[in-house]
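Quick start: read one record
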Amino acid sequence: MVLPDDPAEGQAAAETWLRERLVAAGVVPPEALGALSAGLAAEPGRLIGEKLWQLGLHEAGKAELETVREAYADDPVANYQLALYFQELGLFRSSIVAAASLLHQVGATVFDAPRFLGRLAYPAHYADLILPLAERYGYDPRLQFALVRQESLFESIARSSAAAQGLSQVIPDTGAWIAQRLAWPDFTNEDLFKPYVGLNFGAFYLSEQLRAFDGHVHAALAAYNAGPGNAARWYETAGGDHDRFFDTVDFTETRLYIERIYEGFNAYRHLYGVRD
């Protein structure tokens, strides 16, 4: 996996490409394409949301900022500007959503758009934590990037309706079990919202499922999503055949989960692979 030395690498070329797409779609792009427009900059929701976010009131700040993103959701220029702005602010989920919307609006995918734009939709946040974890446990780091993107869109404060928490969306009971296995000192459930903890626990649990299913990635992902018991049932029926295993999975959500992580893995392989 190759990370760009400069996060802005390729931005100028990407904006030239984007201008051409916008003009072809009948949109007149501003001269400073990547800077917030005067209208966006003056939005009350943006001003209030940024202050709340910087004060550490993340849920309230996100709510304000999301109202702005939703209000401009049909504007590709605003989506590009907000994707950059949210990423710099640290509101990664909203940045990814805006970037994905932009690519859709200009009729592009991460495979045919400039890499700079693709990396906004599939970022490598927390690489300083994920790369060493992948090396420690012996799996491709792009698998964990794809998993975290699918689970939380890199939002450390994420919480699901099933009480899954943090970047890796670990549920409380599983978190307590992992903490015991890792002999994690002074663990409390709220620790799962800390990136260092959430990523460590998710990496350990993913590696445990890969080990339990002899490196069978489909089965490990199914176990991560639907539980080891269900994955074992499907694995027993399908054996070691990946395609047969996928056909055996009878949970629609789990089938979609596996598909999306494989799509994400391929996107990360393209965006962060060795250049030709």
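The mean pLDDT is 95.
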